[in-house]
Amino acid sequence: RDRTGRVVCPLGVGEYFEYWGFDPQRITELDWGEQAALGGGFTVYCRPARHFSGRTFRANRTLWASFVVETPSQRIFLGGDGGYDTHFADVAREFPNLDVAVLEDGQYSEDWRYIHMLPADLKRAVEDLGARRVFPVHNSKYALARHPWDEPLNNAAALAAENPEAGIVLPRIGEPVRLDRSDTLPGRWWTAPEN
């Protein structure tokens, strides 16, 4: 908490940060279409995502969102947790020339297609956004869906092979990545080494 200068989150989520001990003066809640200038050339834009929030009696009391973060040198899209919809193309029109897109890729099911992207949806989102580099996330760390843990990684690797211009990067879990570099990282780290 003490190392965090400012928290930018969707509407209603700030109360959780307050509960966790964050200073309310350092929490900025945004609605879709709003932005927060953080100084030093950094601006965060809140945009739609396709999901929901909460469960049971606390459902939909907070907003779900995606974000565009503009820095002095980069334009980064954080897709959040959600399904495919027109918001990806809308973001690309409003923020052309994205440098990086972080997109959900995993824990999907046909039953959840409106709140988690299926492999074909990842491909469409990548095409819609046209970012120079794409980091598929929301995979490999836990099992929520019925697909094998490595299926999202294999699908993203196949998409990268099919469309090298998509700039798909699949770093090892926990591996530091420099966003200002365009080189790629090791290939299929999740497969067993060949003997």
Description of the molecule:
With 195 residues, the protein is α/β, with parallel strands linked by helices. It has a domain at 33-166: Metallo-beta-lactamase, Chain A, CATH 3.60.15. It contains four helices and eight strands; from the N terminus they run βαβββββαβαβα. The strands form two sheets. The chain has a six-stranded mixed sheet, with helices on one face. The protein has a two-stranded parallel sheet with strand order 1-2. A hairpin with a 2-residue loop joins strand 3 and strand 4 (42-47). The longest helix is centred in the last third of the chain and has 12 residues, at 151-162. The chain is globular and about 50 Å long. 28% of the residues are buried. The mean pLDDT is 88. This is Outer membrane protein romA. Residues 5-138 form the Metallo-beta-lactamase domain. Pfam families: Lactamase_B_2. InterPro entries: Metallo-B-lactamas (IPR001279), RibonucZ/Hydroxyglut_hydro (IPR036866).
